[in-house]
Amino acid sequence: MSRIGKKPVAIPSGVTVTMNGTDLTAKGPKGELAMTFVPEVNVTQEDNSIAITPVNNSKRARSMWGMQRTLVANIFEGVTSGFSKKLEINGVGYRAQAKGSTLNLQLGFSHDVEFPVPEGIKIETPDQTTVLISGINKQQVGETAAKIREYRKPEPYKGKGVKYEGEYIFRKEGKKK
């Protein structure tokens, strides 16, 4: 039994929700997002909330129940306040600079890495070692942050590389004589 799925999702003030069969569209102050529900769940819109129930008691229906409820909650949070991730760059000479629709990264390679900013994502660099990624789609923000981190993951000896804010890097001891 899904404990998350049992709770109905409250529709925040300032958000208009349109249900068309299995499609849901939410429009808020930050933008508009849409999703399609899987056929294993039933969706009903009450006065100020959306309730999701499984169609039957199959394993797939029960596993989709909580996930679909979380996706709806993420859509509502995205169109009202948005999502953001912060990356930190550690290393001598490692830096980042946002230029228009590209992010220029200097990560110790013989060349600069030019990362094209995807549609719907905003990238800022408050200083040379910090990258702020924000947008209304949680999945897209996380995927963009993961792609940037993938260029130079933090290494365990000196901790050089691109890491998430607050991420713990397991440090190893260097070579002994």
From TrEMBL:
InterPro entries according to UniProt: Ribosomal_uL6-like, Ribosomal_uL6-like_a/b-dom_sf, Ribosomal_uL6_a/b-dom, Ribosomal_uL6_bac-type, Ribosomal_uL6_CS
Coiled coil: none
Record keywords: Ribonucleoprotein, Ribosomal protein, RNA-binding, rRNA-binding
A GO CC term assigned to this protein in UniProt: cytosolic large ribosomal subunit
PROSITE patterns: RIBOSOMAL_L6_1
GO biological process terms held by the UniProt record: cytoplasmic translation
Residue ranges of domain Large ribosomal subunit protein uL6 alpha-beta in the record: 11-82, 91-164
Pfam families from the UniProt entry: Ribosomal_L6 (PF00347)
Molecular function in Gene Ontology: rRNA binding; structural constituent of ribosome
HAMAP family: Ribosomal_uL6_B (MF_01365_B)
Cited NCBIfam families: L6_bact
Function: This protein binds to the 23S rRNA, and is important in its secondary structure. It is located near the subunit interface in the base of the L7/L12 stalk, and near the tRNA binding site of the peptidyltransferase center.
Protein family (similarity comment): Belongs to the universal ribosomal protein uL6 family.
Alphabetical list of PANTHER family matching this protein: 60S/50S RIBOSOMAL PROTEIN L6/L9, LARGE RIBOSOMAL SUBUNIT PROTEIN UL6M
Subunit structure, interactors included: Part of the 50S ribosomal subunit.
Descriptive protein name: Large ribosomal subunit protein uL6
Organism classification: Bacteria, Pseudomonadati, Pseudomonadota, Alphaproteobacteria, Kordiimonadales
Primary gene name: rplF
